[in-house]
Structure formats: C-alpha cells, structure tokens
Design goal:
Layout: E1 36-45, H1 66-72, E2 79-84, E3 97-104, H2 110-121, E4 126-130, H3 132-136, H4 138-141, E5 147-151, H5 153-165, E6 172-175, E7 202-203, E8 206-207, E9 228-229, H6 232-242, E10 246-249, H7 258-268, E11 274-279, H8 287-295, E12 298-306, H9 310-315, H10 326-335, E13 339-346, H11 355-365, E14 370-375, H12 383-390, H13 416-430, H14 433-438, H15 447-458, H16 461-469, H17 473-496
Parallel strand pairs: 1-2, 1-3, 3-4, 4-5, 5-6, 7-10, 10-11, 11-12, 12-13, 13-14
Antiparallel strand pairs: 8-9
Helix pairs in contact: 1-5, 6-7, 7-8, 11-13
Length: 513
C-alpha cells in the first residue's frame, strides 16, 4: 500500500497553474464610464479560483442554469447579456453601463461578487444578488447590493425588474420552491457562448433529493426544496431545441423517483442522443432501470459514494446501501456500458490517515473511470457547520477557502495539513498513467475512447487553459462526443436484442463522457 506521505508523482507543491486561473480580472477604480442604459440587464457569474489538483475542464463541461433561467423570465423590452468571468475573457462589460446587474453569489466567490457589486453600484447600476450564499448569509451580502433575491430567483427576477422600473425596489425579496416546477420557462441558452462549453445542454428534470446529508448545501437553514418533476416531454423538447449530441442533467439526484426516471428514459430513447446524470448508488436496486437508462442514452453517472465507511455515512444521515455492496452495484452499471464518476469526501470523523490509500485502491480495483474528491467542508447554516462550531473546530471564516480543496476545520484523526496533503496526493495518484491504465474498461473495444477521454480530461490542464482561453472547448471535444454517441448507439442496438447484459457483453463499449 502506498502511503500518502511517500513521494508519488514528485513534489505536491510543484503544480502548474496560470495566474489568470487563480486571480480575477482587475477592476479599474478610476475607470470612466458612459451613461446608464435603463433597460439593459447584465447577468454575471463571478470568477472563482481554480484547484490545481483537479481538472480545469470540469469548469467548462456545462454552464450553470441559474442565470439563463432568470434571463428567460426577463420582459421583452429589456436587453439581457450573460457574462461568465471563468471563461477568461476578462472583466464584465460596462460600456454602456447596465441599468441592472444580476450577480449569482456562492460561498467561495462571495468576495469577488462583492467587489463587482461595489464597482457597478458606484457607477449608477442597480445590483441584485441571488444564490445560496445570499440565503445562508443575507446580512453579510446586504451592504453590497440594492436588492437580495432569497429563494427561487425565477419567480423573483421579473418582479424585481418591474419594481426597478416603477422606482419601488425593495431591499429583500422572498420566494419558496413550492411552485409547480412545470411552469418554469426553458432557460435562455441563446445567451451562452456555445464554443466555450463541452455542451450548453445542461438540463434539470427534477428538483430536490430524498437525502438531506448534514454536509450538503441542500441542508442549509431556510432552504426547503420539495421534490418536483417536470413532464418528460418538456425535457425532451429542451434537449432537441439546443441541437447538441450530449446533455448533462444537473439535478441533485435524477434517480430519487425511479418511476419517473423510467418514464423519462422512455421519452429520451427515440432521440438517439447521449447524456449523463448524478444519481445515488441505490438506483441499482432496480437493474431494469439501469438497462432503460442505457437504452435511453445514459453513458455515465456521477455517484456520491462520499465514503467507504458505514460509520461516516451514518453520521452524515445519508440513506445509502452498505459500503460492502458498493462494488457489486458499480458492476451493474458497468455491465450496461455506463461509466462511473465516483465522488468521495475526505476528512470525516472516522477517517484516519490511511483513508487516502484505501480509497484510491478501491477505485482502481473497481475500475471507476473517473473520480472526484472533496475535503469535508462545513458550509455556513448547515448542521455540519453548527456541529463543528459547537466543538470549536472551525479554523476560520475565509469563505474563499471553503472550496472543498482546503481544510477549514480541525479533523479528528489527522492535522489539517495532513488532510490537505492527502487530498492532493489522491488526485495525483488517480491522475497518474498507471492508475488511468489500471482503471481501463474490461472490453478492449472501449479502451481507446476511454484513454482519449481520460487524458484530455485528467492530464491536460495546460491544454485546458488554452482551450478555455481561445474558445475551443466545444470544437475540440465535439468529435470525441460524436464518436461516443455512435459507439453507444451501436451498443444499444445489441442491448435491445438481449434480455441481459451478459449476452451482449461482447458488444459493450464504454460510452461515458
């Protein structure tokens, strides 16, 4: 067993990262601007610092839907523009000066959101904040904005714009998530720079999750999102309208209602497109559902395993099968040609210093095609934060470091430095040539495409920087996506002719993106 304090891929401190991936564009405090354009709304996704241990590519796989969803509710006489600072195009525009600036605020980039807000407000724009950090820490956000949207921004945005026009803007607006989700309009994807993302088709079919894990942002005080489902026909129409071969479902858990997922798969199957989604591992309770997902175009799933310790999962109140059954369930997904991106949280109270090596070995033994790691992070206004605070284990409140890549609390069985070292070590191990090869699919037909995907995603941060900078993400990835789609269609034809995956094993090809 390789211990995380042994040299593995060289010094962990020698990680390449360009300055513009960790430093936001400068705001000129003396910048002269023109007059304010009253019916012009600028929607901004602020810059956040990238983690050199992980792939830069994960930031541009698909866009967030929040801002484009708000844009869809904007009155027709308003001009709307979208700006994502993480696409490396520089600071947001200001000529002409927008009448309204909507900024989504999350924990790790709250400081940048405040800087942008202060700059625009000083020059005559009205600033509206929305996002999870606004809900969890409204008093911290309020001094930097003209209005806070607390809750479902899709309901609040047109009301806020109407009040701005009537000069009756309030400081806080509140909405729940109790509305009929089917009434929400489709996101306004026409605002997105299509060349800058692997796919602009990020879809949401459901809202909420049957779990309420103590460490998850869904457990934030005041955030209650009942499980809501859109009609499968509406989802299919959105997928078709964006004219992309691949979609990412960004639902918290697409498999919370298996009867719904069966119906959604039936609707998606005729499209002959491919997609991936986040699910919990208990979705494998129903192998017929996994088969239907594969027949409908599912090529990969993001699974929150979180931990290989039953005690850790019990402490977190996560409803999940026993960890001893994880391997069998991963095999079910693999039997149907579905790749697995496993998500693991490091630093739980039952984790000791051997957790990094044990987790890496389990991932390699079970041939997970991809893995994502997070240092346990107590988000404000969650049960985990309250527990850590009561125990005196919160080390600081520098929100920029609450990015799951830094230890912001005192672990029980190691130091904060050892936790961060182990986090960096496991990423480097799983990104190594040896680990990528060890986790290759069992079917030889799948290996070339798997290697192409793995190396482009996992070991190409220098390349990713260039792709993002020059708007080449979609053009470079598109051929691989199309190859994946055609291979998956061929696999689906074989699968449809057989009652079990074993009979079609010779035709199985990995098709995960």
């Amino acid at each position: 067993m390789i211990a995380p304090d042994e040299p593995f891929l060289g010094s962990l401190s020698k990680r390449w990262i360009p300055r513009e991936m960790i430093t936001p564009p400068a705001l000129d405090r003396k910048q002269q601007v023109g007059p304010v354009e009253p019916h012009y709304a600028l929607l901004i996704n602020p810059f956040y610092s990238k983690d050199a241990n992980a792939s830069f590519g994960k930031h541009v796989l698909t866009p967030s839907l929040a801002l484009t969803s708000f844009a869809a509710t904007t009155p027709e006489h308003w001009r709307v523009e979208y700006w994502d600072e993480n696409l490396l195009d520089g600071r947001p525009p200001f000529r002409p000066m927008p009448g309204v600036v909507g900024i989504t605020v999350h924990l790790t980039f709250a400081r940048r959101a405040f800087e942008l807000a202060d700059w625009y407000r000083a020059r005559g724009a009205k600033v509206v904040f929305g996002g999870l950090h606004v809900l969890s820490c409204p008093d911290e956000c309020a001094p930097h904005a003209d209005a806070l949207a607390l809750g479902d921004g899709v309901q609040l945005w047109p009301r806020i714009l109407g009040d701005i026009e009537a000069n009756t803007l309030q400081s806080r607006y509140l909405a729940t998530y109790e509305n009929d989700y089917r009434e929400d309009p489709s996101p306004r994807r026409s605002l997105l720079p299509r060349r800058s993302f692997l796919t602009t088709t990020s879809l949401i079919a459901t809202r909420g999750c049957h779990n309420r894990c103590g460490f998850c942002y869904l457990a934030t005080d005041g955030l209650r999102i009942p499980y809501r489902m859109r009609h499968p026909r509406e989802v299919v129409e959105e997928f078709k309208a964006d004219d992309q071969p691949y979609a990412v479902f960004i639902d918290n858990n697409l498999g919370s209602r298996r009867d719904y997922l069966h119906s959604l798969c039936a609707a998606l199957r005729p499209l002959n497109k491919i997609w991936s989604a986040a699910v919990t591992i208990d979705v494998t309770d129903d192998p017929s559902l996994i088969r239907n997902m594969a027949l409908a175009g599912c090529t990969g799933v993001f699974v929150g395993f979180e931990s290989l310790s039953d005690d850790n999962l019990a402490d977190s109140h996560k409803k999940t099968p026993k960890t001893s059954d994880y391997a069998r369930r991963v095999r079910i997904l693999h039997d149907y040609g579905i790749q697995v991106n496993g998500s693991f949280v490091l630093g739980f109270d039952h984790d000791r210093k051997d957790v990094f090596a044990r987790t890496a070995e389990w991932i390699e033994e079970n041939r997970l095609e991809c893995a994502t790691f997070h240092i346990l992070t107590p988000y404000p206004a969650t049960p985990l934060f309250r527990q850590m605070e009561a125990q005196g284990r919160i080390l600081h409140r520098d929100w920029t470091l609450y990015d799951t890549g830094h230890a912001v609390f005192q672990p029980k069985h190691m130091t904060a430095e050892e936790l961060e070292h182990g986090y960096a070590w496991i990423y480097q191990r799983l990104f190594s040539h040896a680990s990528i090869w060890q986790r290759r699919p069992e079917q030889w037909q799948a290996i070339p495409l798997y290697l192409a995907m793995s190396y482009l995603y996992k070991r190409s941060n220098r390349f990713w920087h260039s792709l993002i900078k020059h708007h080449l993400v979609n053009p470079v990835w598109r051929p691989l996506v199309e190859m994946t789609r055609w291979r998956h269609l061929r696999y689906r034809r074989g699968l449809a002719q057989h009652a079990s995956p074993v009979a079609a094993a010779g035709q199985v090809v990995s098709a995960g993106v």
